[in-house]
User: What shape does this take?
Amino acid sequence: MMAMSEKFSLEFNLKAGENNFMSKNNKAFVGWIKSAPGITISGSIILAVFATIYSGPYILVNVIITGGMLALVATGLTLILGVLNIAMFAHGEYFMIGSLTAYYVFTPISNYVNENPDSILAITGPLIAIALSMISGAIAGVISEKIVFGPLRRRSTDNWVMNSFLLTVGLSVLLINLHQLIFGADFKGIVRYWGGMPTEIAGVFISRDRIMAFIISAFIVLVFWLFMTYTRTGRAIRAVSQDVTGAQIVGINIENIVLLTIALSCALSGVAGGSLLFMYPSYPTMGLEPLYMAWFVVILSGLGNILGAVVGAFMVALLKVMTVEYVGAGWDFVVPSILIMMVLIFKPSGIFGSEVRGVLDK
Amino acid sequence: MRAKDEHSAGEYQNAPDVDTPLHNGDTLLQDDINPFDMMLQKTGFTPVGLVGVILLLALPFIPPFNQEYLLRWLIYAAFIAAMSVGFDFTSGYINIVNFGYAAVMGYGGYTTSILAINLGLTPWIGILLGGVNAAVLGLAIGMTSLRLRGIFAACLSWFFGLALMGLATKMVWLTRGPLGLRVPRLFETESNLPFYYTIVILLLATYLICTSVVRSNMGLAFKAIGQNMDAARTSGINPVFYRVFNFTLSCALAGVLGGFYAHFYGILTPDIMQTSKTVEVLAVAYIGGRGSLWGGAVIAFPFIFIMEIVRSTLSNLPGLNLIIYALLLILVMIYYPGGFSYFFDEHLRKPKNRVLRYLMNGRQVN
Assistant: This one.
């Protein structure tokens, strides 16, 4: 009860803030700055600017690239939480599947390109690998829905959140060890996708691969957002996440939406793994770090909130990069997890609140 | 004796589902049963359970198990069994999965190891202090997770675990980081036998503590909170006390077990705080049966043995044992959520034969 009433009052405050926004722009801005999202967003921007001035712009570059990757993984996680109400613990494993696919697709391509440097594959090869990593993530998601989540959903939805969470724990162990059994535990990485000379931006040299990785993630997040906002199917997904019975009444096929959602969210994770293969080589437990980070993002921004997840991803990336820079490598689990615990304790609904309510758990 | 005579076979067919010992603790007519059965009732054992305990005590002398490496497996299995009892005490009753359970265990282990190494404290006191320290941590987790429910509380304890593991890795001046601490062993012998009896006693103690709490009114309150917190509040249960108490007790048990772990293996690295360790305990507890306490303890022994046999015989296929246990966890979660204890209650607990019935259930008084 305590938690519930607290949550309602917080949401009420947020609503009040929005009303202000309607009436007077200036007043609304001050109100927004005073609200929790305002404080955190402006705080992180100020922090980022100071760190950039203090240590150099490479901090900003790192934040943007890490944040772009995190945004992909975290939007997938938050989508699956919002729509299917599955607290995914295996999300990092789809990241791993994506990177594995990209490795096995790209290695022959790069051998071929080494022999024929002028071939068109030098430019399109990485794109093919990344696209295939996305598709393999989606296929893995559909398979796990068909084999694991579907049977449980048909069997019983009592205590669904907890049971499905434990299922994903089992799934995660299964996928990690299948990788180890079939492909071995060694690092499967590549040196570069596109290669070439690093580009200089504002005194920092950034490799072309990093720029491309960021462009890909920004493009996909944008397309995904447009899809969720403007297309009929995207609206159907949001409708299911708000009220499953109501969605059924207006003629939405729940089965299809569930499949589509899980495919989309795993594809997002897979493409993140694929496009970052040059930074993170593929090995069995590689999915854990993106998983932890994505969970930090989701808790920070509130469950089922897609735009919030994108903003939160950059905040967590900033937190991580700052920790590595000023506290030391290896502390990047300790400091963020303590801060996220603070968020959980003092604002359990997340900084941006969550407007999207989960289904299947009553 | 009177009570026993009243049980005719026909009556049994129509009788309402005979209570498990969990529920009839208050309704016993205590004059009617002999002291032995009363003792069993009070401690939450059935005769078959007692046979199991005796078997456990005799096991190191029965031929295949009297080899040292099998004894090490037995010790590990008993350790996981005790952990799963403590884990089930939280997840099966107040329905919050403590995802940082392995980290709490490691925290207790580090406490006693650091005390033993830096201050030369004897491990026996150190283990208890580790339990106390872990209890304080459990108190903190319980207090901070009060506002959260279900998955959020699990996340909070998980992040607690991650932060603890990160600290243990990075506080090199205290814990020597990933190199690991060399911890003095509990007994100065090569033999594993004393360790085995220690962990069996710890397992029994864990089980007895948990059952005695669960069978009191407090257990009812735990169940009420776990099933529907709002309804529990409406009936006047204050969840604050019960949740914090539950976390504190289960973390204290984990801390003591972690101390044993450190002083048995003689080396302590941050690896034991990893989430995968919690998942192992979780798998055992869930395959054993949620909310039964004894299910995980029973299933841990065959489970760990199968895992170890698969791992040692098929060592050219690394990870196969983990695949098996993940598959088992998934299958149990989907198709048989009650786990082993449900299977036992449904199919083995109600034989027609009176002697067998007594063995399975103890003396029953309606």
Summary: The longest strand of chain B covers residues 181-182.
